[in-house]
Amino acid sequence: MSALLVAPVALPLVAAAVLLLLPRSAALGRVVGIGSTALVVVAAAVLLVRTLTGEVPVVQVGGWPAGIAVVLALDAFGALVLLLTAAVTLLGLVYAIGTGEDREHTFTPLVLVMSAGVSGALSTADLFNLFVFVEVVLIPSYVLLGLAGRRQRVAGARLYVSINLLASTLFLGGIGLLYGVTGTVQLGELAGVAAGSVPAALAASVVLLAMAVKSAVVPLHSWLPGSYSVAGPAVTVLFSGLLTKVGLYALFRLYSVLFDGDPRFLWVLPAVAVLTMVVGVLSAVGSSAVRPVLTSHMVSQIGYVLVGLGLSTAAGLAAATFFLVQYVLVKAALFMVGGAVEVRYGTDVLDQLGGGLVHRERWLAVAFAGSALALVGIPPTSGFVAKLQLASAAAADGPWWVLLAVVAVSLVTLVSMLKLWNGVFWGSPDGAPERETGGSVAVATRTASWTLVGPPLLLAGAALVLGIWAEPLLAAATVAGEQLADPTAWVSAVTGR
Amino acid sequence: MSPAVVVGVLVAGGVFLLLQRGLLRVVLGFVLLGHAMVVLVLAAGGDRGGFALPGNGAGEPADPLPQAFVLTAVVIAFAVTVYLLGLLRAGSGDLGDDDARGPS
């Protein structure tokens, strides 16, 4: 059991180190990278099955006594997000073969270190270890963003590194304050402190503010479209699946454990969530290239997830969990389609593409249509189930304007997705540009093209399956939501009491 | 009292530099902010006067945990600062100077 918990952290780290030591070989990198990530997926799936019964597996790494040891623990929410991030990493690595990004020798090791950091951040029960694991995620991401540096990529990387360094500094300050107030950084020991004392609540909100920057919550979001739009296609997919999700996970975990769902602060979160949804979707409508539209939508969808946290009821948290899972899959699929268009035609600006790609890229068009419908929330896709859950949770316990925003933002989402569909795929074939054979992005060979089209098709299929056969994921999300609403099991597991 | 003043001065200087044009000043601002957080975390451990070693006869040992935190954080901040300086170097020349675009 303990090996299963440590594996998602240790295995990718070891694989990355081995890859850097071995001679440079693209094939070797693919085998080791995809193989080790597949093992993490299996470990996460086994952990999820165990946690769904309400059990919280916990391990004191190194055998030190409680309070000194590095404690790793997973509840259903953590295991679900772990499985999700591992699956996105796996598909992202396959997709990187197609975009040619993994020809860069350091690409696969960096992605593996990043995924190790994500697993660590998801399973740690110690605030300072969370800080360290978040840095383990961020430092490879800095390098990945600047890889194969086109000119504007350096500018994007500067923005990204600066804003994250600022957030990390704030995070460290918050941890220091919390330690000064309470004398511990073990999340289990800290359970409920923020609900009981004002200084602790202030210190904890500094930590939450830092996490809000990392998860791109409005008004702290403006770094995200600027930096994600310049990364490579596969790097964007991986960032969208891993980075902001760690911030979101930390927001959920910290609010659930530290604040114990304190209703006094609950007016802040729905307000911020609705603002995030609206601002994100409006900037998506105003963008004129595929990637900026999709990155702006990320902001909007983060707002949706936060609505569930803002309700802080078991139903709301379960809906947020379901939404998070389906949205990460759908978003990854959309970024993959956008990236594939960019790799094959050298641009993703709508005016330059001119439409008509449905005649040439039939499977890409199918993947885009499926995942765009899921993003909007049209039945029978998973997005419909997610938004229905969220809307009914909001109707039951939330203010009326939250429900209104959930529905209205979906309509605007539909507008921006139609804009992409018309600009990229729909129309006569004459308007479509010729395939570019050179250019700044490495162009994939024909034989490797299934790695470009396969992963987004698979994810769009998953969105459909999760919409029609939503019962297993709904059940898992319900368990996760109940454990987040009442974190007693998790707290008693990590404190050993 | 004195740690509070030190943190205040460092944060003020750091924020001032962050708001300047030019990435180099921003990097220096991050260095100052990093120092401020180090002092903050150390101060959070409380002032007990002694070293973090038990039994050295100089009063009650200081809290070792913030010192461990600070060691880790300093290493991370150093690595990221060096990377930012690398980006500064990579971008100079072809991006145009950050200073050049604004009013002088």
Mean pLDDT of chain A equals: 86
> Of all protein chain pairs, which has the greatest interface, and how many residues does each chain bring to it?
A-B, 29 and 31 residues
Number of helices of chain A: 20
How many alpha or pi helices of chain B?
4
How far apart are the termini of chain A? 19 Å
Backbone structural class of chain A: mainly alpha
What is the CA-based Rg of chain B, rounded? 18 Å
Multimerization state = heterodimer
Strand and helix order of chain A: HHEEHHHHHHHHHHHHHHHHHH
CATH topology annotation of chain B: Helix Hairpins
Number of domains of chain A: 1
Question: CATH architecture of chain B, please?
Answer: Orthogonal Bundle
Salient structural properties:
heterodimer, A: 497 residues, B: 68% helix, 0% strand, elongated
Note the topology.
The complex is a heterodimer of chains A (497) and B (104).
Chain A: H1 2-21, H2 26-51, E1 58-61, E2 70-73, H3 76-99, H4 107-123, H5 127-146, H6 151-182, H7 193-196, H8 198-214, H9 223-228, H10 233-258, H11 268-286, H12 290-311, H13 314-345, H14 350-353, H15 362-376, H16 382-397, H17 400-425, H18 450-468, H19 471-485, H20 488-495
Antiparallel strand pairs in A: 1-2
Chain B: H1 2-18, H2 23-44, H3 64-91, H4 98-101
Helix pairs in contact in B: 1-2, 2-3
Q: What's this entry about, in short?
A:
Chain A is an all-alpha fold. Chain A has helices at 2-21, 26-51, 76-99, 107-123, 127-146, 151-182, 193-196, 198-214, 223-228, 233-258, 268-286, 290-311, 314-345, 350-353, 362-376, 382-397, 400-425, 450-468, 471-485, 488-495, and strands at residues 58-61, 70-73.
